[in-house]
Every structure is written in structure tokens, then in C-alpha cells.
């Protein structure tokens, strides 16, 4: 996790990642008003030849810190790095949890938070493929974690639309957003970990319309059934400016949703 400006209860460094804090520091932060926990979900799965399998986890790590900073009263739980990715398993190295396992992990991560003094937990995902599972378990999670307030952001369509807007506004390349290893995700990685991007391996993937029917096919038959190289969209034209714009836009989206639900 990155250091953030100092805030009441966090000392001089202002760390928001609880795994990097001591128990005493966490207790002081909670006493000082940090009653929101952020739980990022992610994936370890193929992202074409040009991005590492950690793409979604690195993305979630970065967003979580930005969201915590924006809310101003939040600490970040360790990212659940492996997610629901059965549609990527035909590509070597991809890991995948069962939907029930991912749900159980979220329950276990949140089950002791109220005891420590947290009042709410905000879940989001750096991996689009987790969102159908999250929509399915949202109500059950709220019941199991009561009295903790559970806020689950699930609007993956809004994220994709923001990515298109950012790529279009900055470079007139919104059409290259397909949702996976495309210009948006590649730009995010250029902004966060540029040394991990294999720019010489850029390749276009499926560039047709990404609608519900196509996603159902990808989820049911595997992403390789619609894109032989595992890419939806085109990474060409990716740049740091688009990456920062995507990060800022999605951060604002999730913060706005969390605040509308009482965070």
C-alpha cells in the first residue's frame, strides 16, 4: 500500500493498509473515527501477452488506497487477490476460486470487523468477472455480517462506460475499450506499474460489440471462444494519462456510491 497524507488517528505517516500497521495503530485509528473497512476483490488471470496475471490485483490495490483516501474515514483490508475466473482457465497460470469460496472469504474477512469497532465494510472488485458473483451474494453477505453495514459496489457496466469516456476524451480511442487487457486496463498498469507492461507484445483482441450475449458466451464457453488471444478490446494507444483518468473516475464512482449508502 502507498503512504497517504497524515490524517487524525493515523500518525505521521498516514498508512491506510491494515497489514502494514500495528494492532495499536489500527485501534487508535478506529477510536479516531476510522470506522469504514475497504475490501478489494481481484483476480489472478491471463491478460494477453502484454500484461501480467496480477493486473486485476494491482488495480484493486491502487483503487482501494484511493477510495480510502477519498472517504477519509477508512482503512484497507488485504486484497482478495484470486477471484472467480473459470472463463480464463484455458490460459496457463490462471487461478480461479469457486463462487462459494469467494463468498466464504468475504464472510471470513468481515466477520470480526464489528468487534474491533468498524461500522461498515465496502466491497468492490478490480476484476469485472467477480461482479456477477458479488451481485449474487450481496444480500447473504449483509445478513451474515450484521450488525456490520455491508456496502457492495456491483455496477461493472458503469466502470466500462467510464473507461470508454476516459479513452475517448484523452485520445479519441474509446472504441478500443473492450473490458479485458484493452487500452484502459493497459493504461492503468502503465500508471501503476509501468515496468510490468510488455509494450512490444501489444495485440488487438476481439473488437466487436461487448454486450450481454457476448459476455454470457465468454463466461459459459471461455473467453477464448470469443478471443483467441484472451483480449477484449485493443491495448494500442495506451498511455499513463488514460490510466490516471480511469483510476480517478472509478475511484470517484465508488466513493460516491459508498457515501450514498452511509459511508
From TrEMBL:
UniProt entry tagged with the keyword Zinc: yes
Pfam families: Creatininase
Database matches in Gene3D superfamilies: Creatininase
Cofactors required: Zn(2+)
Coiled coil: none
Keyword Hydrolase: yes
Keyword list, A-Z: Hydrolase, Metal-binding, Zinc
InterPro entries associated with the record: Creatininase-like_sf, Creatininase/forma_Hydrolase
Family stated for the protein in its record: Belongs to the creatininase superfamily.
Name of the protein: Creatininase family protein
The species this protein was found in: Nocardia fusca
Amino acid at each position: 500500500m502507498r503512504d497517504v497524507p497524515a490524517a487524525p488517528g493515523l500518525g505521521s505517516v498516514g498508512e491506510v493498509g491494515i497489514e502494514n500497521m500495528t494492532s495499536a495503530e489500527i485501534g487508535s485509528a478506529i477510536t479516531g473515527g476510522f470506522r469504514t473497512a475497504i475490501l478489494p476483490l481481484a483476480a489472478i488471470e491471463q491478460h494477453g501477452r502484454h500484461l501480467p496475471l496480477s493486473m486485476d490485483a494491482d488495480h484493486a490495490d491502487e483503487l482501494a488506497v484511493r477510495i480510502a483516501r477519498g472517504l477519509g474515514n477508512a482503512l484497507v483490508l488485504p486484497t482478495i487477490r484470486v477471484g472467480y475466473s473459470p472463463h480464463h482457465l484455458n490460459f496457463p497460470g490462471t487461478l480461479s476460486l469457486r463462487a462459494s469460496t469467494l463468498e466464504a472469504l468475504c464472510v471470513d474477512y468481515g466477520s470480526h470487523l464489528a468487534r474491533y469497532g468498524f461500522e461498515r465494510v465496502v466491497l468492490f472488485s478490480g476484476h469485472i468477472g467477480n461482479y456477477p458473483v458479488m451481485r449474487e451474494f450481496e444480500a447473504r453477505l449483509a445478513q451474515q455480517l450484521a450488525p456490520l453495514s455491508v456496502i457492495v459496489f456491483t455496477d461493472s457496466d458503469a466502470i466500462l462506460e467510464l473507461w470508454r469516456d476516459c479513452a475517448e476524451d484523452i485520445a479519441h480511442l474509446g472504441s478500443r475499450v473492450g473490458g479485458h487487457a484493452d487500452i484502459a486496463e493497459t493504461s492503468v498498469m502503465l500508471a501503476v506499474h509501468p515496468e510490468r507492461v510488455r509494450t512490444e507484445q501489444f495485440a488487438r483482441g476481439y473488437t466487436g460489440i461487448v454486450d450481454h450475449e457476448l459476455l454470457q458466451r465468454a463466461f459459459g464457453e471461455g473467453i477464448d471462444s470469443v478471443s483467441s488471444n484472451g483480449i477484449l478490446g485493443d491495448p494500442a494507444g495506451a498511455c499513463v494519462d488514460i490510466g490516471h483518468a480511469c483510476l480517478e473516475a472509478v475511484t470517484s464512482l465508488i466513493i460516491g456510491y459508498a457515501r450514498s449508502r452511509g459511508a
